[in-house]
Structure formats: structure tokens, C-alpha cells
Design goal:
16% strand; Rossmann fold; 15 helices; two-stranded antiparallel ribbon; alpha/beta; 49% helix; Arc Repressor Mutant, subunit A; 2 domains
Length: 348
């Protein structure tokens, strides 16, 4: 045994244990409004924060101390400060890097542990709709900041000729729309276009319809229950798959249906988790996160459906290109990327 390697690994494990415990504290702080109460980045004592938030001062001191020990906050003379940079991720919901509210996804992994034990010992299947409810709200809140920050400003302009069509008045399908975050953002940006959102999870369609009403776009953004292989409609200018194709049992079938539903000059916008094409290339902090999440969410959902291809969240561009080639698409390219996403374009 190499004692130095053992000690190095134990250091990593203790660090991960602390990180997991801290994420539980982040989820707690977001729900209680503690970060929002510190969003001005001014130093505050536990007692003053307790007065602002109607929370227990002794527990707050422990919570704040955990944040200081983790480097999430600064501590000086008995007061705690949430720096502006951390506030962008933890307190400011209009920030493109706001992540605190999306950690319901992480909470769901622990809630669903017993279901995953059964899946591991069985067929591998765990359907999307069988997750804990915090998975659905967490997914919406995890992805929405990135869509708000990048979709209109960067991703759609990276596609050939799509923005001009949207400005003039296009017909768009958002497949696997979930709670409709991406659909509503596009509908708000392009008032001359019409948007149809599809998802096979009926409760998500109910929420998406509500989001469209709240966003003032319900006359142009409609939501329907339907699978990626049989959603209705034709002559779409744009068909979108936002962070969902790799979760599907039959992504080739979904791509074939998108092909059939597009106009001859139509476009598929495929947004997928960032991944390189091999495991060794994905041994990165982002790859670590996406493989771990995919074990609980993406891959078992695919295995719960027909075909059960099981692409997983780290499929990579080459594997996704093969899916669209098998579906009949002749053009496929990487339009742009972020540290967390591949933005891919497919055309007939």
C-alpha cells in the first residue's frame, strides 16, 4: 500500500463530504432567503441576519460559519459577508450564473437513492416522472439562468439564418420542454413567432402553461403532452431539443420525427451537456458532475423507454452526430459552446 496515495485519496473524500454537506446548507439558505438577505454584500452578524429573516440566531451562526470555512463567505470580527461574486451564484436570480435554486436536482438524487438501488439491481430503468418532485422544479431553475444568459444573445445567432426567420415570424417546436423555460424566453424575444412546447410528462405541461401566462406569451406559446417521436405539427422552421435528447430511449427516432416535421430549409437546435468524445477527455470537473448526475437521471430514464439507447449526459459530439446521420440529416455542426453546453445545428 502507498500511504501517500491513501492520504491523498482520503483528502479528496473528506473534501467531497464537506462539499455534499455544504450543498445541503446552500439548499437550506436558498429556501429561507438567507442569501437574498445578504445580497448587498455588506457585513452582517448572525443576530442581525436572524432579525432580517426571522430565523434562529444560533443556527444561523453555525450556517454562516460553515460558509466561511468553505470559502463561500468572508468572516471578520464576528460578522459575515457574501461577496458580490458569490452573490451572483447564490442570491441574484437574474444572474446567468445563479445556481442556488437549481440545487433541488442534487437534493432529488438523495431522495431517490432507494429507487436507484432497485434500478441498479434490475433493468436500470428509472423514469423521469418517478423522481422526487424537487427534481422537476430544480431542473427548471437550474437551466433557466443559462438559457436567459445565452439562448437569445449567443445560441440562436450562431445558427444559419434562424434569427431572421424568428424576427419575421417562424413556427418553432420545443421538444422535451419541461416547465417551458426555454420556450417562454424565445417567445418573449420574438413576438412575431409561434412556439409549441411538447413534453411527455403531463405535470410539466401544466406548469409550462402557467409559466407562459405569467410571462405574457400564452397566446403564442402553447404546450402539449406528447413524446419526441409523435408530437403533432409540421412545417416547423426550428425544432429545439434543450438538454433532453440524451435522456430519451430512442434519440434516433426522435431525430427522425424532427426531420419529418421540419420545412425543407428548417433547422434543429440541439443543446447538450458539454462533453468530449472519450471518457479520458471527460475526466474534468464538468465531466465529473455530468457523469454523476447522468447515473441517477439521464441514463436510467433512457433505459425506462423503448430502445433504451442510454446515451448518457456525456455522449459527445461524435456520438450525437451519428444519431442525426442515422436520422437522415446531412448537415451537422457545432455552432458554439459554453463550459457547460454544446450547441449543435442539424439541417436536411
Amino acid at each position: 500500500m502507498d500511504e501517500a496515495r491513501l492520504n491523498e485519496f482520503m483528502g479528496k473524500l473528506v473534501n467531497d463530504m464537506g462539499g455534499a454537506a455544504m450543498l445541503a446548507n446552500v439548499i437550506l439558505g436558498e429556501e429561507l432567503g438567507l442569501y437574498r438577505a445578504m445580497a448587498d454584500s455588506l457585513p452582517i452578524s448572525a443576530e442581525s441576519l436572524a432579525e432580517k429573516t426571522a430565523c434562529n440566531a444560533r443556527l444561523l451562526r453555525e450556517w454562516l460559519s460553515a460558509h466561511a470555512a468553505s470559502g463561500y463567505m468572508e468572516h471578520l470580527d464576528g460578522k459575515f459577508r457574501l461577496p458580490e461574486e458569490q452573490a451572483l451564484a447564490l442570491a441574484k436570480e437574474d444572474s446567468s450564473v445563479y445556481v442556488a435554486a437549481g440545487l433541488g436536482v442534487v437534493a432529488a438524487l438523495f431522495h431517490d437513492k432507494d429507487k436507484m438501488v432497485k434500478a441498479m439491481r434490475g433493468s436500470g430503468a428509472l423514469a423521469w416522472g418517478d423522481h422526487h418532485p424537487c427534481m422537476f422544479s430544480g431542473t427548471e431553475r437550474f437551466f433557466r439562468p443559462g438559457y436567459k444568459g445565452h439562448l437569445i444573445a449567443e445560441w440562436l445567432p450562431a445558427l444559419d439564418g434562424v434569427v431572421a426567420k424568428l424576427e419575421a415570424g417562424a413556427k418553432v417546436a420545443d421538444v422535451g420542454c419541461g416547465h417551458g423555460a426555454s420556450t417562454v424566453i424565445m417567445a418573449q424575444a420574438y413576438p412575431n413567432s409561434r412556439f409549441d412546447g411538447f413534453d411527455y410528462h403531463a405535470p410539466s405541461i401544466t406548469v409550462a402553461t402557467q409559466r407562459a401566462e405569467e410571462g405574457g406569451v400564452s397566446s403564442r406559446a402553447k404546450f402539449f403532452q406528447g413524446s419526441a417521436k409523435n408530437f403533432p405539427g409540421e412545417d416547423y422552421d426550428l425544432v429545439c431539443f434543450f438538454d433532453c435528447l440524451h435522456d430519451m430511449g430512442d434519440p434516433v427516432g426522435a431525430a427522425k420525427h424532427a426531420y419529418a416535421s421540419l420545412k425543407d430549409d428548417g433547422t434543429v437546435l440541439l443543446v447538450e451537456p458539454f462533453a468530449n468524445d472519450t471518457l479520458d477527455e471527460n475526466i474534468t470537473p464538468v465531466g465529473r458532475l455530468f457523469y454523476a448526475a447522468s447515473t441517477f437521471i439521464c441514463t436510467p430514464n433512457s433505459l425506462s423507454q423503448e430502445v433504451g439507447l442510454g446515451l448518457g449526459a456525456q455522449a459527445g459530439e461524435a456520438r450525437l452526430r451519428k444519431v442525426f446521420s442515422e436520422a437522415g440529416f446531412r448537415q451537422f455542426r457545432r455552432a458554439t459552446q459554453t463550459p457547460f453546453n454544446l450547441i449543435l445545428e442539424a439541417r436536411k
